[in-house]
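Cross-check.
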Amino acid sequence: MPALEGQTVLVTGAARGLGAAIARHLHGLGARLILLDRDEEGLADIGAACPGATSAVVDLADATATERAIAEVVTGPVDTLIHNAAILRVEPLVAVSLDTFQATLNVGIQAAFQLTKAVWSGMKERGGALVFVSSRSGVEGFAGETAYCAGKHALEGFSKCLALEGASHGILSVTITPGMYMHTPMSETT
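Predicted model, tokenized:
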């Protein structure tokens, strides 16, 4: 029996790059996948590569759309949440618009909050794992990454609080910080 047979895993930012690689790998381990991304074409491609996956096209920067997507695709307990979606725009502070700053934080931390709340009750009953994809930008500061660094720092703190709150319920909360520069569509646009 595959290692994750019977386990439900929700992956955000699943249409390409790291998220697509995560989805493919987990599918190979037998996980039942719920995939979220704003890239409709990319989501269709990864869905074809992962037969049986449930998916929803959603802009996680939009709180209302995120709530709708959650209601649509989270129809039972989720064993693992992997929040991988992010927005990275490298530009000096004076060039960052309020809309860009807010969208970056919405995808990075607001969506993490909404998704975690949606799966928390089920995880309190059965245990589970919350995996937040972070970055060196979550533990250091980098010029030109004011919005991205702010969001990743918030994500680090959020995960630490959840680890403490969830420990007695068998809920693991961690951040994963890729240790090397990754060539993904997001990194290549910066």
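The helical segments are 17-28, 40-49, 63-73, 98-126, 146-166, 185-188. The mean pLDDT is 94. Passed to J.P. for a second look.
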